[in-house]
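Q: What would this chain look like folded?
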Amino acid sequence: MPRNTMSFSVESGFADDSKFDDDGRVKRTGTLTTASAHIITAVIGSGVLSLAWATAQLGWIAGPVALMAFSIITWFTSILLADCYRSPDPVTGRRNYTYMEVVRTNLGGRKFQLCGLAQYGNLVGITIGYTITTAISMVAIKRSNCFHKNHIRDGCHTSNNFFIILFGFIQIFFSQLQNFHKLWFLSIVAAVMSFGYASIGLALSIVQIAGGAHPKTSLTGVPVGKNLTSMDKMWNTFSALGDIAFAYAFSTVLVEIQDTLKSSPPENKVMKRATFIGISVSTIFYTLCGILGYSAFGNNAPGNLLTGFGFYEPFWLVDMANVFIVVHLVGAYQVFCQPFYGFVESWSKKKWPESTFITKEYLIDVPYCGIFNVNLFRLVWRTLYVIFTTVIAMIFPNFNDVVGLLGAASFWPLTVFFPIEMYIAQTKIPKFSFTWIWMQILSCVCLIISLLAAAGSIHGLIKRLDTLKPFKSES
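A: My prediction, written as structure tokens:
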């Protein structure tokens, strides 16, 4: 039902005011706990276990500094974004339901179009990357059991295709959940899973160190030598920055998460606390995984401690960690899909408001589960989207390089540029004032870092094109 119609009904007494928010929508029930869980789910992906490799490329000085710098920058810009959810006043103003609505309200015009291109392109890339990553973790379980049974370190290779398709079937089911309000339980479970596998990775690194492993490490990372040219060192350094930038590029879903919160206390205050909790917890795990993983494996740190088989035993613990990764990414896939789903469905309803295929909701009573809303357009469109990401994941088994490029390219506009520009516009910060100048300097520095990271990802993608084998992904 359109916003104006619903609001009129509430104001006229045709509905119970206590069941609706100030915008006429059903009262939101999100809390600090659910918002924090959503954020942790969005931030901590399986990429946390690749940070040992990133630290190895950067070294003991630049590695931890980069992790902390990205964390602080992301937290700062997320705080700015929280104040832009309502406009023009951050507490009593009109709600903006999506990231793009915030951009349109505060900046409008061409910047709004560029935001849409960056945001939704990034979200599609992430979901394809998660499909591949989940399949690799599923295969890793099978491989670790093979290693344990046959006592070998090579071989036991398995096609990823079956597991990519299996993940697709799972997502078709979960994709029918309407929005973030229906995802709170999935995000909490996924957040617990992220703690689980990150903790296992940390514990195994500590055991490796305690066992007397003394791998070579360096203040500047993997040294240039016989197996690494100075050019390769440079590209690897840029790629490492891209990995870290992508790990923190989750701003695209922050507004949608904030839109789930109860209106009292004010959403921006709760969201700032949730952001601090989410990013703090994530940064602790990121830093520990990076530092301890580098300490355990040194310059030979694998791309992923659990799927790259930096560890082989105890095999059951490695299996458990990979199960945690799979469960987590099932939830994370949906967290990143929801804004894109919402955009397409909202646009379709405005374009064809008279179409019952698009607008009509059917109530279905599912035994022991309650009543679910089913919409035919939502059923068909979301299913087709999941099929699309599944097929692309099978065609381009090295799509992670493309996702790295999308992450590097989107970090600056979505995490830094737009939040800063929107905050400046909403609070009317004078041009060339001290605050305006240092915010612009921060934005320019992040732009340069994103461009370098994108260059590293492009270089890695070009190197892998020669070995591309569609539908023949194998781990």
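Strands lie at 86-87, 94-95, 362-366, 370-374.
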